[in-house]
């Protein structure tokens, strides 16, 4: 009996904290997502005013990979707190009809924006720079795009790589090389 109780306690403690709930639109909702008017220029300005980076998280109803991210990756304490502290996350529906205004001024639905940006998979995360050049769309301006679900280590490394602007350094311009180095460092610890 004691062994059973210890096993149950270990399983409960291993569960992610604060897993996302499904919203009325069938997408996962977390409290670090921002409910905005989806004018990306305004969202970028608000993110900058908070000292954060703008992120567009594109998902769809029934996406098993979105579920994986929301149940296994995003709730991990180190990832959840990193997102909260450093990113301004705006969720989009790959097939949504909510209007948004792209950085280039074009007003279109979420699904039209996804088509314009060439997005095919969910989840897809677009990481925006602090300043978007005039006339650029979100896809043109993105400093990185994460197409699909990745494990906790890759996700945290990408969040760090973007936040620390490693993409702009000669040593770490390649995320793959940066990530490989981080894997080696974790193994050495």
From TrEMBL:
Keywords attached to this entry: Signal
Phylogenetic classification of the source organism: Bacteria, Pseudomonadati, Pseudomonadota, Alphaproteobacteria, Rhodobacterales
Pfam families: Thioredoxin_2 (PF13098)
The protein, known as: Thioredoxin
Signal peptide: 1-19
Listed CDD domains: SoxW
Cited InterPro entries: SoxW, Thioredoxin-like_fold, Thioredoxin-like_sf
Keyword flag Cell cycle: no
Ranges for domain Thioredoxin-like fold: 47-131
